[in-house]
Design a protein that fits this description.
heterodimer; A: alpha/beta; two-stranded antiparallel sheet; 8 strands; about 40% helix; about 10% strand; B: alpha/beta; seven-stranded mixed β-sheet; about 35% helix
Chain lengths: ~400, ~325
């Protein structure tokens, strides 16, 4: 049996490894003022790509701001922002082929937008109306689109990680030059699924990028209470996996790392782990209030590392963007989001018949019987069920 | 038609599934060259290659999550969980993911191509962790199909139907019959429809209902009852989710009595669901209370296995009590 210890030296007195035995550099390309570090090697990027990335940044900022507001007004039940983490999500999404399969955690709507999900489609899901692709069956932010190869979000944490290994393996078996990318937070890396998924990907040679957004908090729990070792990246070599740590607030660093990770995964049918060091500027979700567990000073410090501002400055320095164009872009999306909110919230919910659809490929006789019984009841007491009233 | 045992029938079905569907992939702990702990997958890696039949690391949640990923992207995933007792680490992936993939996405994505095969049940002196019958846990979860064969013939036909079904299936294999049950099994390709019970034997005084390895037990009990002049109708449920209430209700309307036998503990067992439904469907036809002969509400015992089991004698006794009620 092979056991990968043969290359190790031997010692003859007790000598432990500690957490500092593993030193992991962090890739930084773009500085806070929008200039590039000396000797930095840029990713593959031209003006058109930069605009598509920045456009997605602005849309996401506007969407997050407006929809968090809509949640506060009671117009939608729940919301999650990715404020502060845009470079991690958009930089990686922009490195992919459109046929690469995205398995997101819950905070990666910017990647879905980058793929082309329309403002209207976002609103239909958030308002759970009859045009929602998910038929109004999940809480807001649980987007999914088969057309855009973005698998529907599942609430339980980390379940997408071993699934991504399976998706990556399926792409290999189908002879495609594509990969699966799996997003998760550093909190999810504590779940068993994380270990199961990464170990299986390494052993079974599944072309999959595991992208950890290390944003500092799992709801209210800071990383100091989540792990003692050297972050998430230190685990990659333990699984025998190519690994890189990047500045997650640096669009160019994320782009460069993911472009090369993807090329490696495709060529070698092998997984890669990326840990993006970032910060969750917003709350965990609309049900959370971070003022209870972290300081204003800490947040203010991270505001200075705003990934969107940093990338904007780079584009301005390149002469690809002006402050005026930037302001116009924000304004365009503010009115677009507002207009779509007004349309989406007026649409009715899907018909009651959809309640028993998709449990199985076709409803079973017992399901049909249960629906018939329910409809009789709804017809008898229509006023008690105002949302389905008159639509039975 | 050759006489073969249940393991050979399962191996034959798996070989046929891989041979007829190039997207089918078979995996699990030790299923590769070794052929699985019970040798159900013997020779398949040699036949179909290491990419399509392989060992996984020891991680049931990983196996289930990997299966979901494969199937969500168009593959046919046939996963083995080495013992049904070890399916619990995978329960989140199966209950929250496999079962809900289609529903939660509005059919944008589904994992209908997943089949989990797993040996279940006692009778092999396996104690707590090699003998459980966890089928009822999964019947509570909408979106899963739960299938249990009782002999080699069914094992092949039901397994092929399960693998090819457009819904995820958990396929429980009665391991005490793996080598004990030998039957005539067609060499060719055939499927047995899921969701349909089988009337194994017709009778007029009482309906006996079981699935998997317990069908043999109720057949033995029926033979004992025949000698006392009691005519038993025997039904094998074959699929527990979705289950064939129509066939069972028709039988009970004819016989007026129902006895359900399963190996899993009584409380929360699937017999409770059947009893409640049949009571509703057949209330005015019933001549006696619906009887349940099941495992005790204990962990599966080692030395008291014979006493624990809902065996033929306990069943026979319950038949007499029901008929004399």
């Amino acid at each position: 049996m092979s056991n990968a210890t043969s290359q190790n030296e031997t010692v003859h007195r007790v000598s432990f490894l500690d957490k500092d035995s593993i030193r992991i550099p962090i890739l930084k390309i773009l500085q806070a003022d929008g200039t590039v570090y000396e000797n930095a090697v840029l990713p593959v990027i031209d003006e058109a790509l930069a605009h598509r990335i920045y456009d997605t940044c602005v849309f996401t900022r506007v969407l997050d701001e407006r929809m968090l507001g809509a949640q506060r007004q009671g117009r939608i039940s729940f919301y999650m922002t990715c404020t502060g983490e845009e470079a991690s999500i958009i930089g990686s999404a922009a490195s992919l082929d459109n046929q690469d399969v995205i398995l997101a955690q819950y905070r990666e709507h910017a990647a879905l937008r980058y793929r082309g999900f329309t403002t209207e489609q976002f609103m239909n899901q958030l308002f759970s109306n009859e045009k929602d692709l998910g038929k109004g069956r999940q809480m807001p932010i649980h987007y999914g689109s088969a057309e855009l190869h973005y698998q529907t979000i599942s609430s339980p944490l980390a379940t997408q990680i071993p699934q991504a290994t399976g998706v990556g393996y399926s792409l290999k078996m189908q002879g495609k030059r594509n990969i699966a990318i799996c997003y998760f937070g550093e909190g999810a890396a504590s779940e068993g699924d994380f270990h199961a998924g990464l170990n299986m990907a390494a052993v079974l040679k599944s072309p999959t990028i595991f992208f950890c957004r290390n944003n500092g908090y799992a709801i209210s729990t800071p990383t100091s209470e989540q792990f003692v070792g050297n972050g998430i990246a230190s685990r990659g070599p333990g699984y025998g996996m190519y690994t890189i740590r990047v500045d997650g607030n640096d669009m160019l660093a994320v782009l460069a790392a993911t472009q090369q990770a993807r090329a490696y995964a495709v060529e070698n049918h092998a997984p890669v782990l990326i840990e993006a060091m970032t910060y969750r500027l917003g709350a965990h979700s609309s049900s959370d209030d971070p003022s209870g567990y972290r300081s204003k000073d800490e947040e203010a410090k991270w505001q200075q590392h705003d990934p969107v501002k940093r990338f904007k400055l780079w584009m301005i320095n390149k002469g690809w963007l002006t402050e005026k164009q930037d302001a116009e872009l924000f304004e365009k999306y503010r009115s677009e989001v507002l207009a779509e909110v007004k349309i989406a919230e007026k649409l009715p919910m899907s018909h009651i018949d959809t309640l028993i659809e998709d449990v199985y490929d076709t409803p079973t006789p017992r399901l049909q019987q249960q629906l018939d019984t329910l409809k009789k009841h709804l017809k008898k007491y229509p006023k008690s069920y105002p949302k389905s009233e008159g639509r039975v | 038609m050759a006489k073969i045992n249940m393991l050979q029938a399962i191996n034959d079905a798996l070989s046929m599934a891989l041979g007829t569907d190039e997207k089918a992939i078979l995996f699990g702990e030790d299923v590769g060259h070794f052929g699985g702990v019970f040798r159900a997958t013997s020779g398949l890696q040699e036949k179909f290659g290491r990419d399509r039949c392989f060992n996984t690391p020891l991680t049931e949640q990983g196996i289930a999550g990997f299966a979901n990923g494969l199937a969500s992207n168009g593959m046919t995933a046939i996963a083995e969980i080495q013992f049904a007792d070890y399916i619990f680490p995978a329960i989140d992936q199966i209950v929250n993911e496999t079962a809900k993939f289609r529903y939660r996405s509005g059919n944008e994505f589904n994992v209908g191509g997943v089949t989990f095969r797993t040996p279940y049940g006692g009778g092999i002196a396996g104690g707590h962790y090699h003998s459980q019958s966890p089928e009822a846990y999964f019947t509570q979860t909408a979106g899963l199909k739960v299938v249990v064969p009782r002999n080699a013939y069914q094992a092949k036909g039901l397994l092929l139907a399960s693998i090819r079904d457009n819904n995820p299936v958990i396929f429980f294999e009665p391991k005490r019959l793996y080598r004990a049950n030998i039957a005539e099994v067609p060499e060719g390709d055939y499927e047995i429809e899921l969701g349909k019970a089988e009337v194994v034997r017709e009778g007029k005084d009482i309906t006996l209902l079981a699935w998997g390895a317990q069908v043999e037990i109720i057949e033995n009990a029926a033979d004992m009852a025949t000698k006392e002049g009691i005519s038993c109708e025997i039904i094998d449920l074959r699929t527990l989710a979705p289950w064939d209430a129509v066939t069972v209700a028709e039988s009970v309307k004819k016989t007026g009595r129902l006895l359900i036998n399963h190996e899993a503990p009584l409380t929360g067992g699937f017999a409770g669901e059947i009893a409640a439904t049949i009571q509703e469907e057949c209330f005015l036809y019933l001549e006696s209370p619906i009887s349940r002969v099941c495992g005790l509400d204990t962990p599966y015992p080692l030395i008291h296995e014979k006493e624990y089991m809902p065996d033929a004698l306990k069943t026979f006794d319950a038949i007499k009590a029901s008929v004399k009620f």
